[in-house]
Write a structure and sequence with these properties.
The complex is a heterotrimer of chains A (about 220), B (about 220) and C (about 250). Chain A contains eight helices and no strands. With about 220 residues, chain A is an all-alpha fold. In chain A, helix 6 runs antiparallel to helix 8 and helix 7 packs antiparallel against helix 8. Chain B has a single domain, classed as MetI-like (MetI-like fold). In chain B, helix 3 crosses helix 5 and helix 6 crosses helix 7. The radius of gyration of chain B is 21 Å and the shape is elongated.
């Protein structure tokens, strides 16, 4: 019971990887939905909501994720809810992802030449049709590489959810280290596992970037 | 819903101030050393021998594809367990510098690779050595090209210093945890500190964007 | 073509260069004397810029020999290249001034770093050279504050600062607005009169006629015709040169 074999350690770490991926996926999906809504709002009503959205983005990009997680966790508690670490982490990471994603996507849409907007409105398309048929198809292409990069960022940032008690790969590593007293090996394996997840995604993002650069 | 009460937290302002001091110190030192490391690595990746290029590529990919908290845990706990014991602040600095170095390397490398070929040919024609070309002709315009991206990364490192609280470096996040524990006003404590970070982030960005053209890469207009 | 002259400053023997499968220089033999001003003309793609860039090692040739002041050009040897480039200066079509430095600093950079001259001496040299090209009051100006013609003149001063044996000019007026071409050509004419050895690739036929001792017409990677300006311009021997001159007279 006291002695963990090497395989025990690795097995337990591997078992926690799905939790990391699960949290990453929810945060990415949640952030994407939020980011998309904010993007469309920003385009349709540039002045009224624009400021509020900018403040939201600046807030999440200008403060540490660690503090955001604590605030979400203790903030929800203030409301009488007793949030599970998963709930708090999901909520916070979705808001965090939403800020970065909406900012990136907004940049991609703004990079579409003005002539595209002018041509499509000259053809009597309304805003929704412009976005759906002309602007977004082009913007999506441009946005794929940086979005993949943000996905990798989200996966790495799930590691901080360990601090509010969510048991994913990092937290499992901490727990095992407390038992085996072998942080060099345990955190080494944890690092390699994160690397094994993130590196292929990063490479894929870079390949996509090369592909899209030539096509333009 | 319980009412927010900032009084106890506000009374602890000396603790926050001490924490802020360490945050600023960690930020300043790691930004400077990390950028220098990044520039050196960028040089190595462009001009170095094959084994150096490969080694630097491994370093960069490793630090860009693993979470910072794991990097700092590995350095503080892991490396200590095989003999190199260090206290929280040196470990924090090492982690921050290595992390920033990897990102800065890629940013600066992109800046250098965007140098118009004619600049390099002109410098070569003047019989300048490769080191002289790098330091006198390449690096300043490269930094000017990528300065906004580099500044963003430096702000990210400043925010990342909050993670150092997890190895008990007594910067401002640690102070927040401490005050939260003492006063049981967790939300308020973290609010105050988060506001501090926001102000710091805005200030740091403005400061660096101001410093760059004046002291780092000289007068440049593109 | 090759004269039995004592000591060519730049000696090119059977030079061949290819880019991958495409051969750009197909066997060049040339001897440039000290104090000679040679103009190389030809259509784009004839290899004239490539030939010039071989002389200071910016292009690597596959076959043949290239000697500057008796020393062979060895592109693999960094030390040899550094020594070579102190003897050979170059002025580029796109000026290539260093944007982060003032005009004076651009001129001072190489003498200070490569020759190790002390600061005061280098500054005096830079001031003298900028005066020579007519820009004595632009010492502290930055390249983006100067016109194209002024930038090119600074570039000439920068090349002169190393006191090279020969200066290569690679279409140095092609990127200039027409009204700025004259000031640059005037400086080059001055250098020619002072006895500086020059290899000039140019499209400016009138200038070539006026200033050069010898004209080399290149066609498809070879020296097609060579001779004094009078001989070539008034009496072109080959149809290729005739058609080139008729298209470029202006």
């Amino acid at each position: 019971m006291n002695s963990f074999t090497t395989w025990d350690v690795i097995r337990n770490l591997l078992l926690s990887v799905p939790w990391t991926l699960f949290l990453s996926a929810i945060a990415f999906v949640g952030g994407s939905v939020l980011g998309l809504i904010l993007l469309v709002l920003r385009i349709m009503k540039p002045h009224s909501l624009g400021r509020a959205i900018t403040w939201y983005v600046q807030l999440f990009q200008g403060t540490p994720l660690l503090m955001q997680l604590f605030l979400t966790y203790f903030g929800l508690a203030l409301f009488g809810l007793n949030p599970s670490p998963l709930l708090a982490a999901t909520l916070c990471l979705s808001l965090y992802a939403g800020a970065f994603l909406t900012e990136t996507w907004h940049g991609c849409v703004m990079s579409i030449p003005k002539g595209q907007w002018e041509a499509s409105s000259s053809l009597a398309l309304n805003l929704r049709e412009q976005l759906q048929y002309v602007i977004f198809p082009q913007a999506v292409r441009v946005s794929v590489p940086p979005t993949v990069g943000l996905g990798v960022q989200i996966i790495k940032n799930t590691s901080l959810a360990s601090v509010i008690g969510f048991v994913e790969l990092t937290r499992t590593g901490q727990i095992i280290t407390n038992v085996t007293y072998d942080p060099f090996f345990v955190y080494g394996v944890v690092a390699l596992l994160y690397f094994a997840i993130c590196f292929p995604c990063s490479m894929w993002g870079r390949a996509l970037e090369r592909k899209f650069t030539f096509k333009h | 819903m319980s009412v927010l009460d900032f009084s106890a937290v506000v009374q602890a302002w000396p603790l926050f101030l001490e924490g802020l001091w360490l945050t600023c110190l960690l930020t300043a030192v790691s930004c400077l050393l990390g950028t220098l490391l990044g520039a050196a690595c960028a040089w190595g990746r462009i001009q170095g021998p094959i084994w150096l290029k490969a080694g630097l590529a491994c370093y960069v990919e490793l630090f860009r594809n693993t979470p910072f908290i794991i990097q700092i845990f590995f350095i503080f706990f892991g490396v200590a367990s095989v003999g190199f014991k260090m206290s929280a602040i040196p470990a924090s600095l090492i982690a921050l510098v290595l992390n920033l170095g990897a990102y800065a390397c890629e940013i600066i490398r992109a800046g250098i690779e965007a140098t118009p070929k004619g600049q390099i040919e002109a410098a070569q024609s003047l019989a300048l050595s490769r080191w002289q070309i790098f330091t006198r002709v390449l690096i300043a315009p490269a930094l000017a090209r990528v300065w906004p991206a580099l500044v963003s990364q430096l702000v990210i490192i400043m925010l990342a210093s909050s993670v150092c609280s997890q190895i008990s470096a007594e910067e401002v996040s640690y102070a927040a945890n401490f005050v939260a524990g003492k006063t049981f006003r967790s939300f308020e404590a973290f609010m105050v500190v988060t506001a501090c970070y926001l102000v710091l982030a805005i200030f740091l960005r403005k400061l660096l964007l101001w410093i760059g053209p004046r002291f780092v890469f000289g007068r440049m207009k593109f | 073509m090759t004269d039995d002259q004592p000591h060519c400053l730049v000696e090119i023997k059977k030079l061949r260069k290819s880019y991958g499968q495409v051969e750009v220089l197909k066997g060049i033999d040339l001897c440039i004397q000290r104090k000679e001003v040679v103009c190389i003309i030809g259509k784009s793609g004839s290899g004239k810029s490539t030939l010039l860039r071989c002389v200071n090692g910016l292009e690597v040739f596959q076959q043949g020999e290239l000697l500057v002041d008796g020393l062979p050009v060895k592109s693999q040897d960094a030390q040899a290249m550094r020594a070579l480039r102190q003897k050979v200066g170059m002025v580029f079509q796109s000026f290539n001034l260093f944007p982060a430095m003032s005009a004076g600093s651009n001129v001072m950079l190489a003498p200070r770093l490569v020759k190790g001259l002390p600061g005061a001496q280098t500054r005096a040299l830079a001031e003298k050279l900028l005066k020579r090209v007519g820009l004595e009051d632009k010492f502290d100006s930055y390249p983006n504050e100067l016109s194209g013609g002024q930038q090119q003149r600074v570039a000439i001063a920068r090349a002169l600062a190393m006191n090279p044996e020969v200066i290569l000019c690679d279409e140095i007026t092609s990127a200039l607005d027409p009204e700025l071409v004259g000031e640059v050509l005037q400086v080059i004419e001055g250098l020619a009169k002072e006895g500086v050895t020059l290899m000039i690739v140019t499209h400016e036929m009138n200038f070539a006629r006026k200033v050069c001792d010898r004209i080399i017409f290149m066609h498809q990677g070879l020296v097609h015709e060579m001779g004094t300006p009078e001989a070539l311009f008034t009496n072109p021997q080959t149809p290729e040169l005739r058609s080139f001159l008729s298209m470029n007279h202006g």
